[in-house]
Amino acid sequence: MKQFDILTIFPHILDSYINESILKRAVTKKLISIKTHDIREVTTNKHKTVDDTPYGGGPGMVLKVEPIAKSINKIKEKAKNKKTRIILTTPRGKLFNAKKAKQLTKYDQLIVICGRYEGVDERVAEYIADEEISIGDFILSGGELPAMVIIEAVARHIKGVLGKQESLEEVGGSHPVYTRPETVEVITKTASGTKRKKKWTVPKILTSGNHKEIKKWREEQGKKFDPPKKTL
């Protein structure tokens, strides 16, 4: 069983996603385990404060290093003999992709630290995290959504999680797909409000029954959609 641990100040923010669809089935089948950890629980101050103002001034608040370090140690105490990787989600991290997701499957346990507010004390990146990962060139309120993206992408590579292993993006999915009915009649409107009746049909090659040509067509179409491959 692969273990995923998420460090956050909002431990229930991802519950609905984890308890649905592919991930829920994978947890039920004991292929993976996903646990969220509230870093406030390890604090000893009265108000369970986990952030403070940044040294040198500036806007926003910064997550403190101590509660994160304590949470990591608490998790590691139970992770005996496990090959563990600690990830910090951050906009400046290396861009996450399918290759990285596959690489991360070699670890027994992934611990994901979710940033919040103005950021995380730099000592977390320097002394605690094994690597920093970003899911794109944009800013979010916190690292919970990136954590979920990483977990699902990695989980999909674990045998038995998907109904069919062919469902992985490397095999299919980047080419156009269609289903029944073969022809759909729709009414569209122009900018001026004029109604037009149109028929949207499935490419003939897909209904030909010629699987060799269908495979060739899909490969050709996939090249139009696949972005240039980058390595981390």
Automatic annotation (TrEMBL):
<dbReference type="InterPro" id="IPR002649">
    <property type="entry name" value="tRNA_m1G_MeTrfase_TrmD"/>
</dbReference>
<dbReference type="GO" id="GO:0052906">
    <property type="term" value="F:tRNA (guanine(37)-N1)-methyltransferase activity"/>
</dbReference>
<protein>
    <recommendedName>
        <fullName>tRNA (guanine-N(1)-)-methyltransferase</fullName>
        <ecNumber>2.1.1.228</ecNumber>
    </recommendedName>
</protein>
<dbReference type="InterPro" id="IPR016009">
    <property type="entry name" value="tRNA_MeTrfase_TRMD/TRM10"/>
</dbReference>
<keyword id="KW-0489">Methyltransferase</keyword>
<keyword id="KW-0963">Cytoplasm</keyword>
<comment type="function">
    <text>Specifically methylates guanosine-37 in various tRNAs.</text>
</comment>
<feature type="region of interest" description="Disordered">
    <location>
        <begin position="211"/>
        <end position="232"/>
    </location>
</feature>
<dbReference type="Pfam" id="PF01746">
    <property type="entry name" value="tRNA_m1G_MT"/>
</dbReference>
<keyword id="KW-0949">S-adenosyl-L-methionine</keyword>
<comment type="similarity">
    <text>Belongs to the RNA methyltransferase TrmD family.</text>
</comment>
<keyword id="KW-0819">tRNA processing</keyword>
<keyword id="KW-0808">Transferase</keyword>
<dbReference type="InterPro" id="IPR029028">
    <property type="entry name" value="Alpha/beta_knot_MTases"/>
</dbReference>
<dbReference type="GO" id="GO:0002939">
    <property type="term" value="P:tRNA N1-guanine methylation"/>
</dbReference>
<feature type="binding site">
    <location>
        <begin position="135"/>
        <end position="140"/>
    </location>
    <ligand>
        <name>S-adenosyl-L-methionine</name>
    </ligand>
</feature>
<dbReference type="InterPro" id="IPR023148">
    <property type="entry name" value="tRNA_m1G_MeTrfase_C_sf"/>
</dbReference>
<dbReference type="GO" id="GO:0005829">
    <property type="term" value="C:cytosol"/>
</dbReference>
<dbReference type="InterPro" id="IPR029026">
    <property type="entry name" value="tRNA_m1G_MTases_N"/>
</dbReference>
<feature type="domain" description="tRNA methyltransferase TRMD/TRM10-type">
    <location>
        <begin position="3"/>
        <end position="223"/>
    </location>
</feature>
<comment type="subunit">
    <text>Homodimer.</text>
</comment>
<feature type="binding site">
    <location>
        <position position="115"/>
    </location>
    <ligand>
        <name>S-adenosyl-L-methionine</name>
    </ligand>
</feature>
